[in-house]
């Protein structure tokens, strides 16, 4: 996983009013927490945060902090992010400080690969699970978990237990959780009586 660098500043004042003023200046309030440290209030430029989580890695990007006093050089991942439901603007971000040699738990998107045989026969592809919870070392976090549906026939499903994963990645979801299914053909309407 590619490591990215992002500049942050410490935030001395907290509260809704302060957060509102920061957002008006295109600055996102946030907090950094993790094992062995007290939570620290920070702020980051909205455009820097958006650029850091865009593209490869997304929310699971490994971010090296620049600035922020004692936080300088710490590696974090985005643990939680609140967005404005109407505009999509980032309202608040939580960063989790991590160690590269300790496993982390993250959400990873599921991506369907190929065209299912059952779809070619007229069936419907039903994606049930869009992301999975995985545990692995930070440097082994996959961008996505690819699920090959090429051989999936009508009436069949792929479950978590059937996934082929890279070494060192453990899925935390129930092994019987369905990922994707192919449902049968829609019933054809009978011709109208003359």
Give an overview in words.
The chain has 194 residues and is mostly beta strands. The chain folds into two domains: 3-97, Ribosomal Protein L25, Chain P; 104-183, Ribosomal protein L25, C-terminal domain (RNA Polymerase Alpha Subunit, Chain A, domain 2), CATH 2.170.120. The chain has helices spanning 16-24, 46-53, 117-120; strands spanning 3-10, 27-34, 37-45, 62-67, 75-83, 90-97, 104-113, 124-127, 131-136, 145-148, 157-159, 170-171, 178-183. The strands form three sheets. A six-stranded mixed β-barrel has the order 1-3-2-6-5-4. A four-stranded mixed sheet has the order 10-7-9-12, with no helix packed on it. The radius of gyration is 22 Å and the shape is elongated. The mean pLDDT is 88.
Keywords, separated by commas or semicolons:
43% strand; 194 residues; 11% helix; 3 helices; 4-stranded mixed sheet; Ribosomal Protein L25, Chain P; RNA Polymerase Alpha Subunit, Chain A, domain 2; 6-stranded mixed β-barrel; mainly beta
Topology:
Elements: E1 3-10, H1 16-24, E2 27-34, E3 37-45, H2 46-53, E4 62-67, E5 75-83, E6 90-97, E7 104-113, H3 117-120, E8 124-127, E9 131-136, E10 145-148, E11 157-159, E12 170-171, E13 178-183
Parallel strand pairs: 1-4, 2-6, 7-10
Antiparallel strand pairs: 1-3, 2-3, 4-5, 5-6, 7-9, 8-13, 9-12, 11-13
């Amino acid at each position: 996983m590619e490591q990215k660098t992002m500049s942050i500043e410490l935030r001395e004042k907290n509260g809704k009013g302060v957060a509102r003023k920061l957002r008006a200046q295109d600055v996102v309030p946030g907090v950094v927490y993790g094992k062995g440290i007290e939570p620290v209030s920070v702020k980051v430029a909205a455009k820097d945060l958006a650029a850091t989580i865009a593209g490869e890695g997304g929310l699971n990007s490994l971010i090296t902090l620049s600035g922020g006093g004692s936080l300088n050089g710490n590696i974090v991942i985005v643990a939680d992010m609140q967005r404005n439901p109407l505009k999509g603007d980032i309202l608040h971000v939580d960063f989790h400080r991590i160690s590269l040699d300790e496993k982390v738990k993250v959400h990873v998107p599921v991506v369907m690969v190929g065209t299912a045989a059952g779809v070619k026969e007229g069936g419907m592809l039903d994606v049930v699970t869009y992301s999975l919870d995985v545990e692995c070392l930070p440097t082994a976090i996959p961008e996505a978990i690819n699920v090959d549906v090429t051989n999936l026939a009508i009436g069949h499903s792929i479950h978590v237990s059937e996934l082929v994963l890279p070494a060192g990645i453990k899925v935390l979801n129930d092994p019987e959780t369905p990922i994707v299914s192919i449902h049968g053909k829609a019933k054809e309407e009978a011709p109208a009586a003359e």
